Each structure stands twice: as structure tokens, then as C-alpha cells.
Write a sequence for this structure.
């Protein structure tokens, strides 16, 4: 079946511009997660959705970052006034229920480059 | 979550079994062992997980020692496409913010022709 998809796969933007990153989770998965991975670094948790609600936004680095999820499916991560330090691969994952040892399945990521 | 220790790199000949070790000596009774891999420039891929018993799926086998302090991921017939960084992580069964995955440095497995 279809896995997690993300778009765009690559995004190059100028400092100060806003960007939107999209995630399509596996059909039927209620939980959705955003992470980012900087070059040579590990995973950095950003936000967790259960349905359309985000019980944990603790990883969002600043108020320039926001995310929403609609219809319990697609999620959009928005970065306003991008900075060079925002350059990273943004990964989305989904899981069936959330919590516990629910297995998370990742998308291919969006590589964001801020010039 | 308990910490894990993995060798930084390993080599394997194509067609042979790749055995990737992981130490998790401080693992608790309710913590699961998970394996993911990340092929260059791709998102992490789930491989397998287990609690106490050995597990097998279409990708790999997971052997967990009786004392649960270490485990081995086995790719039975490695191919060039299995070249990737392999991450062993330990996740508590429930509660808290156990959904936040964190990867260590992992093992870079290079499969050679």
C-alpha cells in the first residue's frame, strides 16, 4: 500500500520568505509526527498530532514554526520568515494509534535550503 | 529510554548475512528494541522490533539475548541496496512522551560487491 508522502521533495528559498511543507500520512493512521534532521545530526522532534489535535508542540523551535492537520489526514508545516538555520531535511511520520510502541513510518522528507 | 551502543561501521559481502550488534545493558522490562535504517538521502525505514522473543519478518531477523542486554539484527542475504546507517533504539512500552524517536549515531553498513 501507499506509504507516507511528502511534498515538495526539495525546496530552495530566500531568507525571510515563508514556506509550506506538506505531509500525506498512511491512510487510517491517526497519529502524525514532524521531525527535522540537520546535516550529520540525529532526529529532532517537532510536533505530534493525534487526529487534528496537537497534544505536543514542544519541539517547535520558535513561533515562526506552526503546523496544522485537517480531516485527520494531511498535515502542513509552515515556517515563516525563514532563516538559514532552518535549512534541514523535514521528515514526517505516521502511526496507527500514537503512543505506546506504535511503529512510526517515515516519508522521504523535504530538503529545505534557505539561502 | 535506555541508551544503546553500536559499532560505527561494518562491512559485508553481497549475498552474505549481515549481523549488526547492539548493546542496551540498561534496558528496562517494559522497553522494546527497535531497528530502523536510513539509506543516504532518504527517510528512516522501519525494519523490525521486539521485546523478549526473537522476531523475523520479510526484511530481517532480530535476536535478543535472554538477559535482554544486547541484540543482533540479521539481514540474511545482504544486497548492495542494504548499504545504509542502521539505528538500534529502545522505546518504553507506554506513557510519557515515548513517541519521540531519537536516533544515536548508528552503524554504517557497507555491502560490497
Amino acid at each position: 500500500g501507499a506509504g507516507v508522502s511528502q511534498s515538495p521533495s526539495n525546496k530552495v528559498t530566500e531568507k525571510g520568505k515563508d514556506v509550506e511543507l506538506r505531509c500525506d500520512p498512511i491512510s487510517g493512521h491517526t497519529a502524525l509526527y514532524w521531525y527535522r534532521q540537520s546535516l550529520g545530526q540525529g532526529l529532532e522532534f517537532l510536533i505530534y498530532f493525534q487526529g487534528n489535535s496537537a497534544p505536543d508542540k514542544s519541539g517547535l523551535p520558535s513561533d515562526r514554526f506552526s503546523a496544522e492537520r485537517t480531516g485527520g489526514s494531511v498535515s502542513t508545516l509552515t515556517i515563516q520568515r525563514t532563516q538559514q538555520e532552518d535549512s534541514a531535511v523535514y521528515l514526517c511520520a505516521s502511526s496507527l494509534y500514537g503512543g505506546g510502541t506504535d511503529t512510526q513510518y517515515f516519508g522521504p522528507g523535504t530538503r529545505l535550503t534557505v539561502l | 529510554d535506555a541508551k544503546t551502543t553500536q559499532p560505527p561501521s561494518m562491512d559485508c559481502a553481497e549475498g552474505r548475512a549481515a549481523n549488526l550488534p547492539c548493546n542496551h545493558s540498561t534496558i528496562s522490562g517494559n522497553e522494546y528494541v527497535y531497528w530502523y535504517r536510513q539509506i543516504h538521502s532518504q527517510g528512516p525505514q522501519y525494519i523490525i522490533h521486539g521485546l523478549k522473543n526473537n522476531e523475523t519478518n520479510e526484511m530481517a531477523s532480530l535476536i535478543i539475548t535472554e538477559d535482554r542486554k544486547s541484540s543482533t539484527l540479521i539481514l540474511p542475504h545482504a544486497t548492495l541496496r542494504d548499504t545504509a546507517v542502521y539505528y538500534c533504539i529502545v522505546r518504553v512500552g507506554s506513557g510519557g512522551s515515548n513517541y519521540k524517536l531519537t536516533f544515536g549515531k548508528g552503524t554504517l553498513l557497507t555491502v560490497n560487491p
